[in-house]
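User: My collaborator sent over this chain with a note saying "see what the structure looks like." That's all I know about it. Can you take a look?
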Amino acid sequence: MAPAALAAGLLPAQTQTPHDSQFPIPGVREDTKLPNGKSQRDEILKAEYEQNVKDARDLAELARTFELDLEKSDRFVLSVGLLKKLDDMEKLTRKIRGRMKK
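Assistant: Without extra context I'll predict from the sequence alone. Here is the result:
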């Protein structure tokens, strides 16, 4: 029914939206250009991607050191350093998740 109604002009045709409007960045206009001619939106996304990659590497390294420290510790003793590393891993994860949800 919908294709016939669309052909008859009863329903508005859905047009494809440009890439910029699909993923808006709060506070950044879609048509803002930097002095070098590049899109401000693209540069922000590139910087956030690079920061996500860096934070993911840091998170992986922190997880490796956590594993080694956990293997070295006794099953009856909980190290405050291990809890600190868990908190740091959680902070990094939240930062990455927050940037990716924009």
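A starting point for your reply to your collaborator: The chain has a mean pLDDT of 80.
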